[in-house]
Each structure stands twice: as structure tokens, then as C-alpha cells.
Amino acid sequence: MKKFFVIVVITLSVITFRASADEGMWIPLLIEKYNIDDMQAKGFKLTAEDIYSINNACLIDAVVLFGRGCTGELISDQGLLLTNHHCGYGAIQKHSSVELDYLTDGFWAMNNEQELPNPDLTVKFLKRIADVTDIVLADIGENLLENERAYSIEENIKKIENNISGGEYINSIESFFYGNQYYLFVYEEFKDVRLVGAPPSAIGKFGGDTDNWMWPRHTGDFSVFRIYADKDNSPAEYAIDNVPYKPKKYLSVSLKGINEGDFTLVLGYPGSTKEYIISDAIKQIKEIRNPKCIELRNKRLEIMNKYMDTNDTIRIKYAGKNARVSNSWKRWKGEIVGLERLNAIETKSKLEKKFNKWATGNEYANVIPELESIYERMEKYTIAYDYYKESIMAIEIIRFAEKFKELIEIASFSEIDSLTLEIKIQELEKQSEAFYKDYVEFIDKEIFYELLPMYFNNVAPEFHPEIIDVGFEGDYMKFIESLFINSIFTQEDEIDKILISGSAESIQQLVNDPVYKFLDRFGKVYSEKILPYYDSLNAQTNILYRKYIKGLSKMQNDNILYPDANLTMRVSYGEIKGSQPKDGVKYVYYTTLDGVMEKDNPDIYDYDVPDKLKELFESKDYGIYEVNGTVPVCFIATNHTTGGNSGSPVLDAEGNLIGINFDRVWEGIMSDMVFDPEQSRNISLDIRYILFIIDKYAGAKYLIDEMNIIK
Ligand code: ARG
Ligand code: GLU
User: Fold this and answer.
1) Radius of gyration of the chain (CA)
2) What's the sign of the alpha-carbon dihedral 172, 177, 179, 181?
3) Which residue among 180, 230, 485, 674 has the highest number of C-beta atoms inside a 10 angstrom radius?
4) How crowded is residue 470: how many other Cβ atoms within 10 Å of its Cβ?
5) How far is ligand 1, taken at its centre, from the CA of residue 121, in Å?
């Protein structure tokens, strides 16, 4: 009888895990082994080989890492690529000025010649994944000291990388589960990526930061690019005679529509999650890190917004900066609320108690207590670290001066290598042009006034550099005023002069610049008293988490763990599904153009619907994108996603494109730490809204004709 009982319990727990939720960001290589049965049971019609295959064209061949942290997908045999508006934002902004304001007006190339090149933008295709754990961890005994272990791992990685003749390919070996496993990723990188089209911000960023991270949502968050290759279809630097890239695979676009309960698949590049951290770490984030960082960003945003609201030049200059600052700021707030509602600290600490009980007397017994003690020791360094990043390094002029550090070093060697110097100067010329293009001194100064005292009031005195020179008597205002008056970093022509002259002597003189001196003194405290401790304590937690994860999977036996996101390609699957965020409130799984019009308000910047869209709405000119008298705009599903998944293709059970991922729902936003099946939802833009805007709004039907549309 007893035996029977045990068996039942185990089976149940396996089933529970299987049926529960769509949590997890899975490795494409392991879909066959771990997920495909579950996926097919949930409605997926294809095979694991259709998702990832080395031999045949597969879905993953149509997905790229876009820029440094977004995802994109190929949607035609002419290298046409779809991603989010906020992922193309940098490119769109760079081509914009007050006269040619593509942010406000949108941009549409009506033929290939009109497309705009983007020198700094690249995309990467994943060619192959291999499990190299055994080779990376070969000869690495359990008892090696951590630095010896790290050294041997690095040597092994080098050996592997030298052994694969990648040719033009980029090889990268990444650690999973805190170093329990290693995988090799082989990429092909393309460097000629041109902007094809972007809707106006009033569509692409509709709802702005007011609606960001929230449902119901009506943001047309997409932009269109095209990849170019040389005549042999290989990657090449930008050149006029490059030709549209012919991809191995591109996605078909489905107009068949979606329903609640439909299977959904997301392929993309989630950046980073912390699903296995212990309750003390969550507590630190929820009670210290997030609140303090939010407070610092409140100030920055307040000041930026004040000027952006009333001045168009400033609005354009600060558009990208503002969006970046506000995005995490709002997510941090949502995380606090979600962690609180889920009672995450308590839930995690229950798991830790269970673990401790299981670990009594075995090799895992010390893991949790040691982690706890490290988090306690880490607190003051963490605070100092966050304040350095979010106050001192939030000052634009300080960050700009930091870029000169290397140049000054190069110029101060007794024997100067003129080629190195020249390369560095060229790099800085570009960076400083970009910096001054979008810099407004008085805004930076005002932010500085607010943030500097916050550092001193919150960070332990041992991390206070002496920066206020004699004569200012702790008067921050006077001090900052004199920094800005006496620094040449605020003077574009002076900086230009130095760079153009290339004179080592004048470059060396920069060390006496007051802004540089300020940076230097703070930098010393940071690099000597904060960072080494912060890093080393974090490294110690890594070792323990490596053990913890190993222990967890032993303890939980059949439970298959998924690795934290690390900007490698992952597969998330789930279903289209609404949610119930609170008592009496239900989230429907989709939104429509009618909702865009409901939000319309010419007096509120975020909700000012463009006239042309209003006309289309009035005349109901929806073409083949019409559903029940309107056009679908966004939908939510249960796919587990995070930052980096922006632009990811959302596919149906047959592998056809039904939308692109761009956000998550506020109530479930803590899913980077704790996924909540009830509340965690990813937000996608319905492909039909994208096509409607391209076709009817932009009049760029030729792009639709390139696609393979399934009706
Ligand atoms: N929240 C989404 C993401 O994390 C969209 C961000 C777009 N930026 C914005 N400030 N609205 O990237
Ligand atoms: N907007 C995010 C991105 O840029 C995706 C939303 C999320 O964090 O899930 O990747």
C-alpha cells in the first residue's frame, strides 16, 4: 500500500509539472529530447527537426539576433526583415532631424534605392549549436579552486575554438546553469542592413511610456529592414552594389487569424533572467535595489520630460535616452508589485527550507547558508554599485569623458604607437559627433545637481571620494557649476581640435580637466573599493548557485529545469490566453483598431492618433486585414519571454508568423525571477495590423507582394 502511494505521488508531480504552465526558455538543440512531446500534445503540428536542424532548412534559420539585443525574422526571399519599432529606434533616430523627422512622420522606402544604410547595425544568424560540456569540463576536478577552474575552462574553450575552422563564422561558447553546462553557438554575421520602413511614432510607439509594460495595448511596434549580401550571397560590408540577401529560410505569414487556446511558439534571444536566485536575493532586489534605482531614475525622467514636453528639438534629441531610462524604471516598479503579490520571498524561502532538509548531511548542506551570508555581506557593495551606475554614470558628460580614458593612456606611453592612436582618435571622432548631436548641457547639469547629493546621502562613507574641492565647502551647486564652466568636454569645437590635431601633448592635458578629474576620483573608488568586492562576492554566489542547481535537480528528480536566459537562441511555447489581473477584471486576449481610436486624444502626446489612420478608420478601408468590422492590433499569450525577445516571431502550430513579440503584461512582469502562470503574459503585435499599416497606411504594398501570405 505504502509503495503504491509513493508511486502515485511521483507520477502526479511529473504530470503537474508537465501540465503546469508554459514556463521555460528552452534550448533548440534539446527540444527533441525534452519538449516536443509536450508541445505536440499542446497542439504543435511540426517536429523538433522543423524548429532546429543542422541539415535542413528550419524555422531557426529565419530568425536573427538583431543589433545587440533584439530579435528579428526574415519574411521574404529578398532578405526582408521584421523587428520592433523600438529595436529599430536607434537607426530611425539617427536618420532623423527636425526637418526630416522620421520618428514623427515615419519612413517608407518605395523601392530598394530609397532604403537607408546603417553602418553600426548587424544581424546574426545561428548556424549550429553543440553541447561541449564534456570538453569544456574535461579534467576539471570537483576540488579545483575557483580561479584554477576558470583558468582551465578558458583553456579548454580556446582549444575548442581553435579546433573548429569556422571560416567566416563566429564561434561562441556560453555557460548554462552557472557553469554546469556549456554550449557552442556558431553564427554568421551580416553587416549591410538597411532601413526599409517604420511607422510614425504615433503608431510604432503609440501609448508611449504610459502604456509600456501594460495591457490592454495598442502599440504598432514594428519596423522593417532588409539584409544585403555580396554577389555570392555572403556577408559583406555596406556597398552600393550589394544585393538583397537570399535566406535559407523565411517565414510564411498567416492571415488565418487567432483564437484563445491556440498554440504559440516564440523563437528569439532572451537576454537575462534570474529564475533560481534565493529569497534573500529577491528581498534585496525588491526592498533595496529596485526602490533605490527607481528613485534615482524618477529624478532623471522628471527633468528630461519637463524639457521634452515643450521643445521639439529636445524631444528628438532625448527620445532614445528617455525611452531607455524609462523602460527598466517601469519594469522595476512592476517587479516589486508582482513579487509582493506572489509572496515570492516566502515561496522561495519555503523551497530553501525543503532543500536544506533534503541536503542535511550531504554535500549540498552548506549551499543555502553560505549564499545567505554572502548576500548579507554584499549589501553595502550592491548599494554603492547601483548608485555609481545610476547616479554618477547617469551624467552624460561623465560617461562621455570616460570614453577618453583609453586615448589618454595611449598618448601617455613613452613610445606612442601612432597607428593605435589614430584608430582610437577616429573612433572617438565618431562617438563625439553622436554625443554632441543629442546633448543638451543644461539638462545634464540639472540632473547632476539632483543626483550627486543622492549618492552621498545613500552610499556608505567609505565609498565617498573627496571631490568637492576646497573653497566650495560642500556646495554641490557651486562645484558642478565650476565643473561645467571649466571643462572642455562641454565644448565640441575644443574637443574636435584636440582630436584633429592628434597631439599627444594636448590629449595628455585632458587629465587636468575638471570633469575628467571628477571621473577619475570617482572611478578610483569604484574600481578599487566597490567593483572588486561586488564582483568577487557575485562570483562566489555563482559557485554556490552552480551547486544549488545541481542539488535542486537531484532533489526534484524528474523536474526538468530550464536554463536562465543568456542572449542565446531559445524556444518558448504556450497558448493565446487572456488573464484575470484582479477581482472583477478580465483581460481579453486581443485588442483592435477600435481601441486605438478610443484612446485617441490630440492633447496627449502618447495618444495622438495620426490623421491618416483616423481616415482609414472612418472609411473602414481595412482590405483583407478586416476582422469583424475592425483590424486586430495586439494579443497576449503565455510564452515565457524577457528583454531581448523583442521582435521575436510568434508562430502558430504550423510555424507560420502570426505576430511579433514586443512586451509583457504588468501583472506578470516579475517572470524574470518568478513566472506566474496566471498572470505572466507576453504581448505581441498581430501580423495583420503590421500588414494593414504597410499596405493601407504607408502604401508600400510592394513589400506585401514579396511575402508568402497564407489566407
Ligand atoms: N517594454 C518593452 C521592452 O522592454 C518595450 C520598450 C519600448 N520602450 C519604451 N520606453 N516604450 O523593450
Ligand atoms: N520589450 C522587450 C525587449 O526589448 C521585451 C519585453 C520583455 O522584457 O519581455 O526585448
Assistant:
1) 27
2) negative
3) 674
4) 6
5) 19
In a domain, 371, yes or no: yes
**Separation of alpha carbons 243 and 240, rounded Å:** 8
Q: Which amino acid is at 505?
A: E
Q: Please tell me the residue having the least CA distance from ligand 2 atom 2.
A: 643
Please tell me the number of the ligand nearest to residue 644's CA.
2
User: 651 and 267 in contact (C-beta within 8 Å)?
Assistant: yes
- Residue 216 DSSP code: S
> Would residue 590 count as lying in a domain?
no
Q: Where among 554, 571, 598 does a domain terminate?
A: 554
Give the binding-site residues of ligand 1, using a 6 Å CB cut-off: 86, 209, 212-213, 323, 326-327, 643, 646, 662-663
**Model confidence over 516-527: pLDDT tens digits?**
999 999 999 999
Q: Which residues are catalytic?
A: 86, 221, 646
So what's the pLDDT on residue 1?
36
- Do 504 and 498 meet the contact criterion of CB atoms below 8 Å apart? no
159 shares a domain with 84: yes
Q: What is the dihedral of CA 665, 669, 675, 676, to 10 degrees?
A: -50
84: helix, strand or coil: coil
The grid coordinates listed for 438 are 543629442
Return the amino acid letter for 538: N
User: How far, in Å, is the centroid of ligand 2 from the Cα of 601?
Assistant: 26
Place of cell 577619475: 520
- Can you tell me the distance from the alpha carbon of 646 to that of 63, in angstroms, rounded to the nearest whole number? 12
Q: What is the pLDDT of residue 161?
A: 82
Is-contact 54 128, C-beta < 8 A? Answer: yes
Residue type at 244?
P
Ligand 1 atom at minimal distance to the Cα of residue 326: 10
Which of the residues in the chain have pLDDT under 50? Answer: 1-19
Q: Which of 494, 88, 509, 565 is nearest to 323 (CA)?
A: 88
Do 289 and 248 lie in one domain? The reply is no
Residue from 486, 490, 495 nearest 397 by CA: 490
Q: Which atom of ligand 1 lies nearest, measured to the CA of 212?
A: 11
Is 659 among the domain residues? Answer: no
Q: Does 663 contact ligand 2 (Cβ within 6 A)?
A: yes
Say if residue 336 is in the same domain as residue 398: yes
698 sits in which H/E element: none
Cα(689)–Cα(118) distance, integer angstroms: 26
- State the total domains in the chain: 2
Ligand 1 atom with the smallest distance to the CA of 324 is: 10
- Choose among 616, 645, 656, 653: nearest CA to 633: 616
As given in the structure block, the three cell numbers for residue 574 are 504556450
Residues 609-654 pLDDT 10s: 999 999 999 999 999 999 999 999 999 999 999 999 999 999 999 9
Q: What does the buried/exposed string (b/e) look like for 207-224 if buried means 16 or more CB atoms within 10 Å of the residue's CB?
A: bbbebbbbbbbbbbbbbb
Domain span holding position 432: 279-554
pLDDT of residue 165: 66
Cα 127 to ligand 2 centroid, rounded to whole Å: 24
Going by C-alpha positions, the residue among 336, 329, 320 that lies closest to residue 297 is: 329
